[in-house]
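Sample A.
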Amino acid sequence: MSEIINVDRDTLRKLQLKELESLVYFDEFCKKHELTYFLLGGCVIGAIRHNGFIPWDDDIDVMMPRRDYERMLKLWKQHESNERFLMLKTDGDKVFTGNSFATLIDTSATMVKENQKDIDVPHGIVTDVFPLDGCPDSKWQRYLQYYHAMMYSLYITEVVPSKHGGLIKFVSSVLLKLVPSRERRTKIWQKHEKKMTRYGFRTHKKSTELCAGPGYMVNEYPQEAFNEVIYHEFEGLQMPIPKGYDAYLKMAFGDYMELPPEDKQVPHHDLVALDLETPCR
Protein backbone atom coordinates (compact mmCIF):
# COMPACT_ATOMS: atom_id res chain seq x y z
CA MET A 1 0.00 0.00 0.00
CA SER A 2 1.35 3.42 -0.98
CA GLU A 3 1.94 5.94 1.75
CA ILE A 4 -0.61 8.76 2.07
CA ILE A 5 1.04 12.17 1.85
CA ASN A 6 0.25 15.12 4.09
CA VAL A 7 -0.65 18.30 2.19
CA ASP A 8 0.24 21.46 4.11
CA ARG A 9 -1.93 24.59 3.89
CA ASP A 10 0.41 26.43 1.50
CA THR A 11 0.48 23.51 -0.93
CA LEU A 12 -3.27 23.06 -0.58
CA ARG A 13 -3.83 26.70 -1.52
CA LYS A 14 -1.62 26.29 -4.59
CA LEU A 15 -3.63 23.18 -5.51
CA GLN A 16 -6.89 25.12 -5.18
CA LEU A 17 -5.67 27.89 -7.47
CA LYS A 18 -4.54 25.27 -9.99
CA GLU A 19 -7.97 23.65 -9.83
CA LEU A 20 -9.53 27.04 -10.43
CA GLU A 21 -7.88 27.10 -13.86
CA SER A 22 -9.81 23.94 -14.78
CA LEU A 23 -13.06 25.47 -13.57
CA VAL A 24 -12.50 28.60 -15.68
CA TYR A 25 -11.77 26.45 -18.74
CA PHE A 26 -14.88 24.32 -18.15
CA ASP A 27 -17.00 27.43 -17.58
CA GLU A 28 -15.87 28.91 -20.91
CA PHE A 29 -16.66 25.64 -22.70
CA CYS A 30 -20.16 25.51 -21.22
CA LYS A 31 -20.88 29.14 -22.08
CA LYS A 32 -19.68 28.61 -25.63
CA HIS A 33 -22.02 25.64 -26.12
CA GLU A 34 -24.91 26.99 -24.00
CA LEU A 35 -24.70 24.20 -21.43
CA THR A 36 -26.13 24.53 -17.92
CA TYR A 37 -24.01 23.58 -14.93
CA PHE A 38 -23.74 24.42 -11.23
CA LEU A 39 -21.03 24.23 -8.62
CA LEU A 40 -21.66 21.19 -6.43
CA GLY A 41 -21.41 20.29 -2.75
CA GLY A 42 -18.49 21.84 -0.91
CA CYS A 43 -17.96 24.36 -3.69
CA VAL A 44 -21.47 25.76 -3.17
CA ILE A 45 -20.86 25.89 0.59
CA GLY A 46 -17.54 27.57 -0.11
CA ALA A 47 -19.18 30.16 -2.35
CA ILE A 48 -21.88 31.01 0.20
CA ARG A 49 -19.78 30.81 3.37
CA HIS A 50 -16.31 31.88 2.16
CA ASN A 51 -16.81 33.47 -1.29
CA GLY A 52 -14.41 30.83 -2.56
CA PHE A 53 -12.96 27.48 -1.55
CA ILE A 54 -13.62 26.08 1.88
CA PRO A 55 -10.09 26.66 3.27
CA TRP A 56 -9.40 22.94 3.74
CA ASP A 57 -11.22 21.69 0.60
CA ASP A 58 -9.04 19.91 -1.94
CA ASP A 59 -11.21 19.60 -5.04
CA ILE A 60 -13.83 21.13 -7.31
CA ASP A 61 -17.07 19.33 -8.16
CA VAL A 62 -19.73 20.48 -10.62
CA MET A 63 -23.09 19.06 -11.66
CA MET A 64 -25.16 19.29 -14.81
CA PRO A 65 -28.74 18.33 -15.69
CA ARG A 66 -28.51 14.94 -17.41
CA ARG A 67 -29.34 16.33 -20.86
CA ASP A 68 -26.58 18.96 -20.63
CA TYR A 69 -24.18 16.37 -19.21
CA GLU A 70 -24.67 13.98 -22.15
CA ARG A 71 -24.42 16.85 -24.65
CA MET A 72 -21.23 18.05 -22.98
CA LEU A 73 -19.59 14.64 -23.36
CA LYS A 74 -20.47 14.50 -27.07
CA LEU A 75 -19.45 18.09 -27.76
CA TRP A 76 -16.14 17.66 -25.93
CA LYS A 77 -15.33 14.66 -28.10
CA GLN A 78 -16.28 16.49 -31.28
CA HIS A 79 -14.80 19.94 -30.69
CA GLU A 80 -12.25 19.96 -27.86
CA SER A 81 -8.62 19.60 -28.90
CA ASN A 82 -6.71 21.24 -26.04
CA GLU A 83 -4.15 18.63 -24.97
CA ARG A 84 -3.89 20.06 -21.47
CA PHE A 85 -7.52 19.40 -20.50
CA LEU A 86 -9.04 15.95 -21.05
CA MET A 87 -12.62 14.84 -20.36
CA LEU A 88 -12.75 11.18 -19.38
CA LYS A 89 -15.60 8.80 -18.64
CA THR A 90 -15.51 5.02 -18.51
CA ASP A 91 -16.88 3.86 -21.87
CA GLY A 92 -16.45 0.10 -21.77
CA ASP A 93 -14.03 0.28 -24.69
CA LYS A 94 -10.81 2.27 -24.31
CA VAL A 95 -11.35 4.23 -21.10
CA PHE A 96 -11.67 2.97 -17.53
CA THR A 97 -11.44 5.55 -14.73
CA GLY A 98 -12.88 3.74 -11.71
CA ASN A 99 -15.53 6.47 -11.43
CA SER A 100 -19.23 6.44 -12.26
CA PHE A 101 -19.14 10.03 -13.56
CA ALA A 102 -17.06 12.15 -15.92
CA THR A 103 -13.78 13.75 -14.87
CA LEU A 104 -11.97 16.75 -16.30
CA ILE A 105 -8.21 16.15 -16.09
CA ASP A 106 -5.64 18.94 -16.11
CA THR A 107 -2.53 17.14 -17.36
CA SER A 108 -0.15 20.05 -16.62
CA ALA A 109 0.35 18.72 -13.07
CA THR A 110 0.45 15.37 -11.29
CA MET A 111 -1.94 14.18 -8.58
CA VAL A 112 -2.49 10.53 -7.74
CA LYS A 113 -5.38 9.49 -5.49
CA GLU A 114 -4.86 6.39 -3.37
CA ASN A 115 -7.95 4.65 -4.79
CA GLN A 116 -6.78 5.23 -8.38
CA LYS A 117 -3.06 4.53 -8.11
CA ASP A 118 -3.34 1.24 -10.03
CA ILE A 119 -5.64 2.56 -12.77
CA ASP A 120 -4.13 3.43 -16.16
CA VAL A 121 -5.37 7.03 -16.63
CA PRO A 122 -3.57 10.40 -16.80
CA HIS A 123 -3.11 11.27 -13.12
CA GLY A 124 -3.57 15.04 -13.36
CA ILE A 125 -5.60 17.54 -11.37
CA VAL A 126 -9.19 16.29 -11.37
CA THR A 127 -12.52 18.11 -11.54
CA ASP A 128 -15.47 15.75 -11.05
CA VAL A 129 -18.53 16.34 -13.26
CA PHE A 130 -21.77 14.78 -12.00
CA PRO A 131 -25.12 14.43 -13.79
CA LEU A 132 -28.36 15.49 -12.11
CA ASP A 133 -31.37 13.27 -12.81
CA GLY A 134 -35.11 13.40 -12.30
CA CYS A 135 -36.83 11.25 -9.66
CA PRO A 136 -39.94 9.23 -10.56
CA ASP A 137 -43.07 10.26 -8.65
CA SER A 138 -43.99 6.67 -7.73
CA LYS A 139 -42.27 5.25 -4.64
CA TRP A 140 -41.94 1.83 -6.26
CA GLN A 141 -40.35 3.31 -9.38
CA ARG A 142 -38.03 5.30 -7.13
CA TYR A 143 -36.91 2.11 -5.37
CA LEU A 144 -36.22 0.58 -8.76
CA GLN A 145 -34.25 3.67 -9.82
CA TYR A 146 -32.14 3.38 -6.67
CA TYR A 147 -31.53 -0.31 -7.40
CA HIS A 148 -30.46 0.44 -10.98
CA ALA A 149 -28.18 3.23 -9.74
CA MET A 150 -26.50 0.89 -7.24
CA MET A 151 -25.95 -1.77 -9.91
CA TYR A 152 -24.67 0.83 -12.38
CA SER A 153 -22.24 2.17 -9.80
CA LEU A 154 -20.96 -1.29 -8.85
CA TYR A 155 -20.29 -2.53 -12.35
CA ILE A 156 -18.92 0.68 -13.87
CA THR A 157 -16.49 1.38 -11.00
CA GLU A 158 -15.75 -2.27 -10.14
CA VAL A 159 -15.38 -1.15 -6.53
CA VAL A 160 -17.04 -2.85 -3.56
CA PRO A 161 -18.63 -0.22 -1.24
CA SER A 162 -16.91 -0.44 2.15
CA LYS A 163 -18.66 2.30 4.17
CA HIS A 164 -22.31 1.31 3.85
CA GLY A 165 -22.66 -1.80 5.98
CA GLY A 166 -21.46 -5.38 5.87
CA LEU A 167 -24.45 -6.71 3.91
CA ILE A 168 -23.98 -4.28 1.00
CA LYS A 169 -20.26 -5.03 1.01
CA PHE A 170 -20.81 -8.80 0.94
CA VAL A 171 -23.50 -8.75 -1.77
CA SER A 172 -21.48 -6.36 -3.94
CA SER A 173 -18.41 -8.57 -3.66
CA VAL A 174 -20.39 -11.64 -4.71
CA LEU A 175 -21.99 -9.82 -7.66
CA LEU A 176 -18.61 -8.72 -9.00
CA LYS A 177 -17.13 -12.20 -8.63
CA LEU A 178 -20.07 -13.67 -10.56
CA VAL A 179 -19.21 -11.41 -13.53
CA PRO A 180 -15.40 -11.31 -13.88
CA SER A 181 -15.41 -10.20 -17.53
CA ARG A 182 -15.19 -6.43 -18.09
CA GLU A 183 -17.07 -6.85 -21.38
CA ARG A 184 -20.02 -8.41 -19.57
CA ARG A 185 -19.79 -5.85 -16.76
CA THR A 186 -20.00 -3.10 -19.37
CA LYS A 187 -23.21 -4.53 -20.81
CA ILE A 188 -24.68 -4.69 -17.31
CA TRP A 189 -23.87 -1.09 -16.31
CA GLN A 190 -25.05 0.23 -19.68
CA LYS A 191 -28.40 -1.52 -19.20
CA HIS A 192 -28.84 -0.12 -15.68
CA GLU A 193 -27.72 3.36 -16.75
CA LYS A 194 -30.44 3.43 -19.39
CA LYS A 195 -33.10 2.40 -16.87
CA MET A 196 -32.07 4.75 -14.06
CA THR A 197 -31.95 7.82 -16.35
CA ARG A 198 -35.36 7.43 -18.00
CA TYR A 199 -36.93 10.14 -15.78
CA GLY A 200 -36.49 13.61 -17.24
CA PHE A 201 -34.84 16.25 -15.08
CA ARG A 202 -37.36 18.94 -16.06
CA THR A 203 -40.49 16.76 -16.09
CA HIS A 204 -40.60 15.47 -12.50
CA LYS A 205 -41.13 17.13 -9.13
CA LYS A 206 -37.81 16.06 -7.64
CA SER A 207 -34.23 15.46 -8.69
CA THR A 208 -31.36 13.34 -7.40
CA GLU A 209 -27.63 12.57 -7.72
CA LEU A 210 -27.47 9.00 -9.00
CA CYS A 211 -23.70 8.99 -9.56
CA ALA A 212 -22.59 10.52 -6.26
CA GLY A 213 -22.57 7.34 -4.18
CA PRO A 214 -25.18 5.57 -1.98
CA GLY A 215 -25.26 8.34 0.61
CA TYR A 216 -26.38 11.00 -1.87
CA MET A 217 -28.43 9.04 -4.40
CA VAL A 218 -31.18 8.59 -1.78
CA ASN A 219 -31.67 12.39 -1.58
CA GLU A 220 -34.68 13.81 -3.39
CA TYR A 221 -34.24 17.54 -3.95
CA PRO A 222 -37.19 19.80 -4.80
CA GLN A 223 -37.12 20.47 -8.53
CA GLU A 224 -37.38 24.22 -8.03
CA ALA A 225 -33.98 24.18 -6.29
CA PHE A 226 -32.33 23.70 -9.69
CA ASN A 227 -34.78 25.48 -11.97
CA GLU A 228 -32.60 28.55 -12.28
CA VAL A 229 -28.91 29.44 -12.26
CA ILE A 230 -27.68 32.39 -10.22
CA TYR A 231 -24.13 33.68 -10.00
CA HIS A 232 -22.14 34.07 -6.81
CA GLU A 233 -18.61 35.15 -6.01
CA PHE A 234 -16.09 32.32 -5.96
CA GLU A 235 -12.42 33.28 -5.65
CA GLY A 236 -13.06 36.67 -7.23
CA LEU A 237 -15.04 35.17 -10.12
CA GLN A 238 -18.79 34.93 -10.71
CA MET A 239 -19.69 31.24 -10.84
CA PRO A 240 -23.07 29.47 -11.26
CA ILE A 241 -24.88 27.94 -8.30
CA PRO A 242 -28.49 26.70 -8.01
CA LYS A 243 -30.96 29.46 -7.12
CA GLY A 244 -32.44 27.09 -4.54
CA TYR A 245 -29.04 26.36 -2.99
CA ASP A 246 -30.40 26.64 0.56
CA ALA A 247 -32.91 23.78 0.15
CA TYR A 248 -30.29 21.68 -1.66
CA LEU A 249 -27.51 22.23 0.88
CA LYS A 250 -29.74 21.68 3.92
CA MET A 251 -30.87 18.32 2.58
CA ALA A 252 -27.37 17.24 1.54
CA PHE A 253 -25.33 18.66 4.46
CA GLY A 254 -27.63 19.92 7.23
CA ASP A 255 -26.54 23.20 8.85
CA TYR A 256 -24.00 24.10 6.18
CA MET A 257 -23.17 27.51 7.69
CA GLU A 258 -21.77 25.95 10.86
CA LEU A 259 -18.05 25.17 10.73
CA PRO A 260 -17.14 21.54 11.49
CA PRO A 261 -14.91 20.72 14.49
CA GLU A 262 -11.27 21.64 13.98
CA ASP A 263 -10.18 18.01 13.63
CA LYS A 264 -12.57 17.65 10.68
CA GLN A 265 -11.17 20.68 8.85
CA VAL A 266 -8.89 18.57 6.66
CA PRO A 267 -8.76 17.55 2.97
CA HIS A 268 -10.97 14.56 2.30
CA HIS A 269 -9.05 12.82 -0.50
CA ASP A 270 -6.13 10.50 0.24
CA LEU A 271 -3.23 11.38 -2.07
CA VAL A 272 -0.14 9.28 -2.68
CA ALA A 273 1.53 11.83 -5.00
CA LEU A 274 1.20 15.54 -5.73
CA ASP A 275 3.48 17.61 -7.98
CA LEU A 276 2.00 20.87 -9.23
CA GLU A 277 4.96 21.61 -11.50
CA THR A 278 5.34 18.33 -13.39
CA PRO A 279 2.88 17.27 -16.13
CA CYS A 280 1.40 13.85 -15.43
CA ARG A 281 2.34 12.64 -18.91
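Sample B, a different protein:
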Amino acid sequence: MQKKTALTIAGSDSGGGAGIQADIKTMTVNGVFAMSAITALTAQNTTGVTDILNSTPEFLAHQLDAVFTDIYPDAVKIGMVSSAELIQVIADKLTEYDAKNIVVDPVMVATSGARLISDDAIAVLKEKLLPLALLSTPNIPEAEVLSGMEIHSPEDMEKAAGRIYDEFGCAVLLKGGHDLNDANDLLCTGDGLRWFKGKRIDNPNTHGTGCTLSSAIASNLAKGMSLEDSVDQAKRYISGALAAMLDLGKGKGPMDHAFAVEGEY
Protein backbone atom coordinates (compact mmCIF):
# COMPACT_ATOMS: atom_id res chain seq x y z
CA MET A 1 0.00 0.00 0.00
CA GLN A 2 1.30 3.42 -0.94
CA LYS A 3 0.08 6.74 0.45
CA LYS A 4 0.83 10.37 -0.33
CA THR A 5 2.99 12.09 2.27
CA ALA A 6 3.36 15.55 3.77
CA LEU A 7 5.96 17.13 6.04
CA THR A 8 5.25 19.83 8.60
CA ILE A 9 8.12 22.04 9.77
CA ALA A 10 6.85 23.94 12.80
CA GLY A 11 6.82 24.27 16.57
CA SER A 12 5.23 21.86 19.03
CA ASP A 13 2.09 22.99 20.90
CA SER A 14 1.83 20.99 24.11
CA GLY A 15 -1.85 21.92 24.30
CA GLY A 16 -2.49 20.12 21.02
CA GLY A 17 -4.49 22.82 19.27
CA ALA A 18 -1.91 24.39 16.97
CA GLY A 19 1.58 23.81 15.58
CA ILE A 20 2.91 20.33 14.89
CA GLN A 21 0.03 18.66 16.68
CA ALA A 22 -2.65 20.44 14.67
CA ASP A 23 -0.70 19.83 11.47
CA ILE A 24 -0.37 16.08 12.02
CA LYS A 25 -4.04 15.72 12.93
CA THR A 26 -5.09 17.72 9.89
CA MET A 27 -2.84 15.84 7.49
CA THR A 28 -3.97 12.47 8.84
CA VAL A 29 -7.67 13.27 8.56
CA ASN A 30 -7.10 14.66 5.07
CA GLY A 31 -5.70 11.36 3.91
CA VAL A 32 -1.91 11.75 3.80
CA PHE A 33 0.89 10.32 5.91
CA ALA A 34 2.26 13.09 8.14
CA MET A 35 5.90 13.62 9.09
CA SER A 36 7.46 16.40 11.14
CA ALA A 37 10.57 18.45 11.80
CA ILE A 38 10.21 20.41 15.02
CA THR A 39 11.59 23.95 15.15
CA ALA A 40 10.74 24.60 18.81
CA LEU A 41 9.10 23.12 21.89
CA THR A 42 6.51 25.29 23.60
CA ALA A 43 4.88 25.07 27.00
CA GLN A 44 1.45 26.12 25.80
CA ASN A 45 -2.25 25.68 26.42
CA THR A 46 -5.48 27.47 25.51
CA THR A 47 -4.60 30.42 27.74
CA GLY A 48 -1.17 31.17 26.28
CA VAL A 49 2.51 30.29 25.94
CA THR A 50 4.63 30.12 29.10
CA ASP A 51 7.98 28.95 27.70
CA ILE A 52 9.78 28.19 24.43
CA LEU A 53 12.82 26.01 23.75
CA ASN A 54 14.12 26.41 20.20
CA SER A 55 15.74 23.63 18.23
CA THR A 56 19.35 24.18 17.29
CA PRO A 57 20.03 24.73 13.59
CA GLU A 58 22.13 21.55 13.53
CA PHE A 59 19.38 19.39 15.02
CA LEU A 60 16.73 20.83 12.71
CA ALA A 61 19.01 20.04 9.76
CA HIS A 62 19.36 16.43 10.98
CA GLN A 63 15.57 16.08 11.25
CA LEU A 64 15.11 17.32 7.69
CA ASP A 65 17.84 15.00 6.39
CA ALA A 66 16.17 12.06 8.14
CA VAL A 67 12.83 12.75 6.47
CA PHE A 68 13.97 13.62 2.96
CA THR A 69 16.43 10.73 2.63
CA ASP A 70 13.84 8.11 3.58
CA ILE A 71 10.19 9.05 3.00
CA TYR A 72 10.26 11.91 0.51
CA PRO A 73 7.32 14.28 1.15
CA ASP A 74 4.84 15.09 -1.61
CA ALA A 75 4.20 18.45 0.06
CA VAL A 76 5.77 20.57 2.79
CA LYS A 77 4.05 22.96 5.18
CA ILE A 78 6.15 25.46 7.14
CA GLY A 79 4.75 27.19 10.20
CA MET A 80 6.30 29.41 12.83
CA VAL A 81 10.10 29.56 12.78
CA SER A 82 11.51 32.06 15.23
CA SER A 83 15.10 32.67 14.18
CA ALA A 84 16.96 33.65 11.04
CA GLU A 85 19.38 30.73 11.49
CA LEU A 86 16.55 28.16 11.52
CA ILE A 87 14.86 29.72 8.49
CA GLN A 88 18.18 29.59 6.62
CA VAL A 89 18.57 25.89 7.45
CA ILE A 90 15.07 25.17 6.15
CA ALA A 91 15.66 27.09 2.94
CA ASP A 92 18.99 25.32 2.38
CA LYS A 93 17.54 21.84 2.93
CA LEU A 94 14.44 22.44 0.80
CA THR A 95 16.73 23.57 -1.99
CA GLU A 96 19.13 20.66 -1.51
CA TYR A 97 16.33 18.10 -1.74
CA ASP A 98 14.32 19.95 -4.41
CA ALA A 99 11.19 19.94 -2.24
CA LYS A 100 7.81 20.18 -3.95
CA ASN A 101 4.49 21.84 -3.10
CA ILE A 102 5.84 24.11 -0.37
CA VAL A 103 3.22 26.02 1.65
CA VAL A 104 4.56 28.74 3.95
CA ASP A 105 2.34 30.03 6.75
CA PRO A 106 4.40 33.14 7.62
CA VAL A 107 3.58 33.34 11.32
CA MET A 108 4.97 36.74 12.32
CA VAL A 109 2.28 38.70 14.16
CA ALA A 110 0.10 37.63 17.08
CA THR A 111 -3.62 38.36 17.14
CA SER A 112 -2.78 41.10 19.65
CA GLY A 113 -0.57 42.75 17.04
CA ALA A 114 2.71 41.82 18.75
CA ARG A 115 5.63 40.67 16.58
CA LEU A 116 6.49 37.02 17.15
CA ILE A 117 9.78 36.86 15.25
CA SER A 118 12.71 39.24 14.90
CA ASP A 119 13.32 41.64 12.04
CA ASP A 120 16.34 39.66 10.86
CA ALA A 121 14.26 36.48 10.78
CA ILE A 122 11.62 38.27 8.70
CA ALA A 123 14.36 39.42 6.32
CA VAL A 124 15.60 35.85 5.79
CA LEU A 125 12.02 34.60 5.42
CA LYS A 126 11.51 37.13 2.62
CA GLU A 127 14.84 36.58 0.91
CA LYS A 128 15.30 32.82 1.19
CA LEU A 129 12.05 31.00 2.02
CA LEU A 130 9.13 32.71 0.30
CA PRO A 131 10.74 32.52 -3.16
CA LEU A 132 10.82 28.70 -2.74
CA ALA A 133 7.13 28.48 -1.89
CA LEU A 134 4.27 27.50 -4.14
CA LEU A 135 1.91 29.32 -1.75
CA SER A 136 2.12 31.65 1.24
CA THR A 137 -0.87 32.05 3.58
CA PRO A 138 -0.53 35.34 5.50
CA ASN A 139 -3.28 36.84 7.59
CA ILE A 140 -3.91 40.57 7.32
CA PRO A 141 -1.26 41.77 9.85
CA GLU A 142 1.32 39.47 8.26
CA ALA A 143 0.38 40.63 4.77
CA GLU A 144 0.89 44.22 5.94
CA VAL A 145 4.46 43.32 6.94
CA LEU A 146 5.15 41.49 3.67
CA SER A 147 3.58 44.10 1.40
CA GLY A 148 4.68 47.22 3.28
CA MET A 149 1.18 48.69 3.23
CA GLU A 150 -1.82 48.97 5.53
CA ILE A 151 -4.90 46.89 4.75
CA HIS A 152 -8.32 48.30 5.58
CA SER A 153 -10.58 47.03 2.80
CA PRO A 154 -11.05 44.18 0.31
CA GLU A 155 -9.48 46.45 -2.30
CA ASP A 156 -6.43 46.83 -0.06
CA MET A 157 -6.28 43.04 0.23
CA GLU A 158 -6.16 42.74 -3.55
CA LYS A 159 -3.40 45.33 -3.83
CA ALA A 160 -1.33 43.80 -1.02
CA ALA A 161 -1.66 40.26 -2.39
CA GLY A 162 -0.50 41.50 -5.77
CA ARG A 163 2.53 43.18 -4.22
CA ILE A 164 3.51 40.02 -2.35
CA TYR A 165 3.10 37.88 -5.46
CA ASP A 166 5.14 40.28 -7.56
CA GLU A 167 7.97 40.52 -5.02
CA PHE A 168 8.36 36.89 -4.00
CA GLY A 169 6.96 34.96 -6.96
CA CYS A 170 4.74 32.66 -4.91
CA ALA A 171 0.97 32.47 -4.95
CA VAL A 172 -0.70 34.22 -2.00
CA LEU A 173 -3.75 33.21 0.00
CA LEU A 174 -4.48 36.35 1.98
CA LYS A 175 -6.78 35.31 4.78
CA GLY A 176 -9.68 37.57 5.68
CA GLY A 177 -11.16 37.92 9.13
CA HIS A 178 -9.65 40.35 11.63
CA ASP A 179 -13.02 42.14 11.40
CA LEU A 180 -12.36 43.15 7.78
CA ASN A 181 -14.82 40.85 6.03
CA ASP A 182 -16.93 37.76 6.55
CA ALA A 183 -14.10 35.19 6.54
CA ASN A 184 -13.45 35.70 2.83
CA ASP A 185 -9.97 34.74 1.62
CA LEU A 186 -8.21 36.03 -1.49
CA LEU A 187 -6.02 33.86 -3.71
CA CYS A 188 -3.54 35.66 -5.97
CA THR A 189 -1.72 33.62 -8.62
CA GLY A 190 -0.18 34.24 -12.01
CA ASP A 191 -3.68 33.74 -13.43
CA GLY A 192 -5.14 36.61 -11.39
CA LEU A 193 -7.30 36.96 -8.29
CA ARG A 194 -9.99 34.68 -6.90
CA TRP A 195 -12.10 35.27 -3.81
CA PHE A 196 -13.07 32.27 -1.70
CA LYS A 197 -16.22 33.23 0.15
CA GLY A 198 -16.62 32.03 3.70
CA LYS A 199 -19.26 32.31 6.38
CA ARG A 200 -18.06 33.38 9.79
CA ILE A 201 -18.88 30.68 12.34
CA ASP A 202 -19.79 31.95 15.79
CA ASN A 203 -17.25 29.85 17.63
CA PRO A 204 -14.74 31.52 19.99
CA ASN A 205 -12.52 28.42 19.96
CA THR A 206 -10.32 29.16 16.96
CA HIS A 207 -6.86 28.27 18.29
CA GLY A 208 -4.79 26.84 15.46
CA THR A 209 -6.92 27.89 12.49
CA GLY A 210 -3.95 29.18 10.50
CA CYS A 211 -1.91 26.03 11.09
CA THR A 212 -4.88 23.86 10.19
CA LEU A 213 -5.74 25.69 6.97
CA SER A 214 -2.18 25.63 5.61
CA SER A 215 -1.77 21.96 6.53
CA ALA A 216 -5.03 21.04 4.83
CA ILE A 217 -3.92 22.87 1.68
CA ALA A 218 -0.56 21.07 1.73
CA SER A 219 -2.36 17.73 2.16
CA ASN A 220 -4.54 18.41 -0.86
CA LEU A 221 -1.54 19.45 -2.95
CA ALA A 222 0.20 16.22 -1.93
CA LYS A 223 -2.78 14.27 -3.26
CA GLY A 224 -2.41 15.98 -6.63
CA MET A 225 -5.18 18.57 -6.44
CA SER A 226 -4.79 21.90 -8.19
CA LEU A 227 -3.96 24.92 -6.05
CA GLU A 228 -7.48 26.37 -6.32
CA ASP A 229 -9.13 23.04 -5.52
CA SER A 230 -6.71 22.55 -2.61
CA VAL A 231 -7.72 25.89 -1.11
CA ASP A 232 -11.43 25.29 -1.68
CA GLN A 233 -11.33 21.84 -0.07
CA ALA A 234 -9.23 23.12 2.85
CA LYS A 235 -11.67 25.95 3.56
CA ARG A 236 -14.56 23.48 3.66
CA TYR A 237 -12.59 21.26 6.02
CA ILE A 238 -11.78 24.04 8.46
CA SER A 239 -15.40 25.23 8.40
CA GLY A 240 -16.48 21.75 9.42
CA ALA A 241 -13.89 21.60 12.19
CA LEU A 242 -15.11 24.93 13.58
CA ALA A 243 -18.79 24.05 13.17
CA ALA A 244 -18.31 20.96 15.33
CA MET A 245 -18.17 23.43 18.27
CA LEU A 246 -15.58 21.59 20.35
CA ASP A 247 -15.18 23.31 23.72
CA LEU A 248 -12.03 22.46 25.67
CA GLY A 249 -9.81 24.41 28.03
CA LYS A 250 -10.07 27.65 29.94
CA GLY A 251 -9.09 29.98 27.08
CA LYS A 252 -9.45 30.08 23.31
CA GLY A 253 -9.75 26.39 22.63
CA PRO A 254 -8.92 24.13 19.69
CA MET A 255 -11.11 22.96 16.84
CA ASP A 256 -12.25 19.37 16.36
CA HIS A 257 -9.76 18.27 13.70
CA ALA A 258 -11.27 14.78 13.70
CA PHE A 259 -14.90 15.85 13.18
CA ALA A 260 -15.13 13.86 9.94
CA VAL A 261 -13.45 10.66 11.17
CA GLU A 262 -15.72 7.64 10.89
CA GLY A 263 -15.35 3.91 11.38
CA GLU A 264 -14.77 1.37 14.08
CA TYR A 265 -11.57 3.03 15.34
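Observation for Sample B: The beta strands are 5-13, 33-45, 48-54, 75-78, 102-104, 135-136, 171-174, 185-189, 192-196.
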